[in-house]
Amino acid sequence: MIRLATVSDISPIDTLILTKAMEFKAAGKTQWQKYLEPSRTEIVTYDVTNGTVYVYEENDTVVGAVSLIPPTSWDENLWNDADTAVYVHRLVVDSRHKGKQIGSQLMRQAMVGSKR
Hints:
Number of strands: 4
Radius of gyration: 14 Å
């Protein structure tokens, strides 16, 4: 089930992001290095409390998440139409659920959710 994240989802989302960042590091990838830092929890908390995170829940457990955030100054420097867009950030799925198309489902929700 996909739903808007609540405050009680902050810790599971934070854990998903940290776990994925550690997996990337172990594989020699440089993606998500900043999410190895404790400040990641502040980012997750900010996004959840602003209503910009959707979670995929299976058997009462959050196994995926995606953040839809308004443009930042970084985005505005890249795109001419940044103010009319919503950006997908921190799309993450528990690796144990690989192959279930959870990421695809979250992206479809992101497309619907960005039109609200």
